[in-house]
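Figure 2 data, in text form.
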Amino acid sequence: MKVYLKNVHFIYLIYLIPLILDDGDHTQEIIWLVYIFPSIVLPFKYGKKGGLIAALIATLIHGLNEYVEIVINHEIYSAYNIWCMVIISIVNFTVAITIGFLVEKIKYKQHSLQRVVSKMEFMAFHDHLTGLPNRWNLEIKLKEAIEAARKDNSYLAVLVLDLDRFKLINESLGHSNGDQLLKDVAKRFSSTIRGDDFIARQGGDEFILFLPNLHSKEEANRKIENILQIVGRPFYINNHEYFITCSVGVSYFPNDGETWQELIQHADIAMYSAKDLGRNGYQPYTIEKLQEINDVVKIESHLRRALLQNEFTLQYQPLIDLQSGKIFGMEALIRWNSTELGAVTPAEFIPIAEEIGIIGSLGTWVLKEACTQTKILSELNQTPIRVAVNISSKQFKDKKFVDIVCNTLKETGLNPAQLELEITESVSLDNIDELILKLKLLKEMGISIAIDDFGTGYSSISYLKHLPVDTLKIDQSFIRNMLCNFKDRALVESIISLSKSFGFNVTAEGVESCDQLELLKSFNCGQAQGYLFSKPVEIHDFYRVFKNLNEGSPNLLLPVTIG
């Protein structure tokens, strides 16, 4: 076989070498190799750019065909063959351009897909607001750090950082400015980390930081103090200066937990302890804190069922008129004897009832039960007796509270003049206008109002003159210490004098000794209650106490015993 070529680019000699070495008829193979092969390979390798180059090569080859004679078996190509080459060149041009554009588009989509995948991966493991790692990312990194600390026999500290009163700041600034504050706080937290430290946003205003490779707990303490100092510096948002603090709880591996869940849980418990102690500080985890939390959880769990299972009862403590020495009333006190937890004090379960939102139902039960039993006792004694019922701040703030009291009196048939409602000073400070309105409505019904634990809050004396109240009850802490502390003694005397000046009755709580009683009498205190007269007792025992004190001409200097 002989092939004569002229004015053809030398690159095509490579394609013709196998044919030159073979004597067979390879006309079709020559056409495919010279025209088609480059136009397929180049676009796939170089995309749109390769397609254009291949198309230009095809056009060039077509133009050179006029000057090329290809002799195979001593025969010259005919015009038909040349036209075939022209058609092939046109097809080749179209194929090359099309493949090039398609490949380029596919590569662009692949690149876009990679960017989307990368963005989705970042979003999956980072907080969208601050850009910090999120909880999922934290879990992975903390597990790795725990394993490393286990191998190296080193300390690892887990810190839960929660901003103090951020909800209030967020509501005052607006959510957009609140978000900006979170971003700024995140930057400050990030500025404190070392190379191996890791910080993540847990959610809301809570962040988690872990410190690996520690040799002592003092290193973590210094770190926390530095964080508190940096966060305590002013923040500037829209040309306004703001201050914020944070509370920090810390747990250590391996002392406080072996898993990442335990370490975070225990650091979280310690953080709430720091908040309880005044905020803007830090507390380490202790087993006692966990026990406190477990006790609260148990109480909460059983508290929800206790009302339905009739586990609550009321006890009554006499209210004594110090001039006559007679019982004029009684205070209703709730008691809970749980079938599983045993006796639980009001100081333990009342705050939890307020927090979980059942104080309204519980308070309504107390009010109705106290009115019902007082009605029965008054009929039994043939003498009306007053009952004092404590009202929690959340219960009092209920918009339906006045209606609930009114309906309870109607249902039980108790004379409103026999009911006294005791509120705390904290209620009077929240919304003075709403407070006065509710108190006036209650007073119009004939109900008496007392301020309980007076002196322990921060109520203003100027507000006191505007409140339609009947009685001030001096907190037992002042009564307990007035014999040995001249300041408490002076305070008790001042409250009694102030009450008389305003036309209020005054009741001394927690009277336990004869000396306390004599001193109160010397201050012209009108009313008292306490263990000196009687402990809180069930309603059937109270009837006997009433008989002993009111009909037996008792000596008020001696305690009354039951049974």
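Caption note: Residues 1-29, 65-80, 553-563 have pLDDT under 50 and may be disordered.
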